[in-house]
Amino acid sequence: MSMQRPKTVVASNDLQKKYRYTLTEPIGKHFDPRFKPQLTPKEMLALGVFGGVYLRDSKDEFPKDWFAHAKLQPDDVSTQDKHLNFFGVLASQSLAVWRQKGWIHRDDPRGWFQWYCRYYMGRRHQDDERQIKRWVNMRRHLMQIANNCRSGDILCRPRQRQTLLHWAYDTRKV
């Protein structure tokens, strides 16, 4: 087994200029054992998340193939389109609300999904523990869907399903 040299990424987008981080793990590998996302960032973007306005200014930071089939608004449109979301509903709170609730770490100013994309790429960070706990806590929504919907009825609780999709849970089979 050969040792791969850590790679430094310099990310520049609308919320960060020349933010540097190091990839210490192979892409999509060596996750915390508690963290088992059901979808990759590429799959999430292709299914439709965040009304199509997320990460459009970060295409240079992540693999090009993540965006090949992503459902995104045009770059000059800043509002979410619920029709671009897999379940056809808006299920996000604003970034201002996320900041107010203390859910944003300064290194990931777009929140959990930005953290997940960077974690998936191989970055390990001081915020990993908090974010993984937040992901684990989303399981309560899976139980609510299972307890209130017929198995396979993806039209039941679409907002809750879209929220879970934003957290890399695949509820199409719940």
Give a short overview.
By secondary structure, the chain is mainly α. Helix content is 30%, strand content 6%. The protein has one domain (7-134).
Which blocks of ≥5 consecutive residues have pLDDT under 50? Answer: none
The major sheet is characterized as:
2 strands, antiparallel
Total count of helical runs of at least 4 residues: 6
Number of domains: 1
Which percent bin holds the helix content? 25-40%
Mean pLDDT: 94
Proportion of residues in extended strands: 5-15%
Strand order of the largest sheet: 1-2
Radius of gyration, in angstroms, nearest whole number? 16 Å
Number of strands: 2
Global structural class: mainly alpha
Shape designation: globular
What is the N-to-C succession of helices and strands?
Answer: EEHHHHHH
N/C terminus separation = 39 Å
SSE order and pairing:
Blueprint: E1 7-11, E2 19-23, H1 41-47, H2 95-100, H3 112-121, H4 128-137, H5 139-148, H6 158-166
Antiparallel strand pairs: 1-2
Task: Tell me what the structure shows.
The structure is a single chain. The chain has 174 residues and is mainly α. The protein has one domain. 30% of the residues lie in helices and 6% in strands. The protein has six helices and two strands, in the order ββαααααα. The chain has a two-stranded antiparallel sheet with strand order 1-2. A hairpin with a 7-residue loop joins β1 and β2. The chain is globular, with a radius of gyration of 16 Å. The model has no long low-confidence stretch (mean pLDDT 94).
